[in-house]
Design goal:
129 residues, mainly alpha
Amino acid sequence: MYITLLQGVLKEVASVNRETQRGYAWFLLIPLFNLVWAFIFYIKLANSIKNEFESRGKNSTSDYGKGLGVALAITGVLGFIPYVGLFFGIGNLVLWIFFWVIIARYKSDLVNSEKGNYRVDYDSDLLDN
């Protein structure tokens, strides 16, 4: 479901605003390769969402999940460190849930943007509560 959400977000982004293709989300399932691909993909995903909102005339100070995506990738790599990796693994799980929720909200906003009632500051919104 997570990968299909990532693909769904990219589906809502116009092809000219995409920095990565929808199918590339599946590369996150390739063991070991995903440790490097996560850094690249999450940054490109956030930039694609930002490009789409800006092309629709909605500018924000939000990083569109980029910081959280990079933190998710970092904790994924650090989870392989013996002994302390368990703590990073737990942190990775928590960040993954936050990231999933934020990306789902962005997708919802992109789908409902025709109605003109969307916001894009979910990063700080979710972390403040």
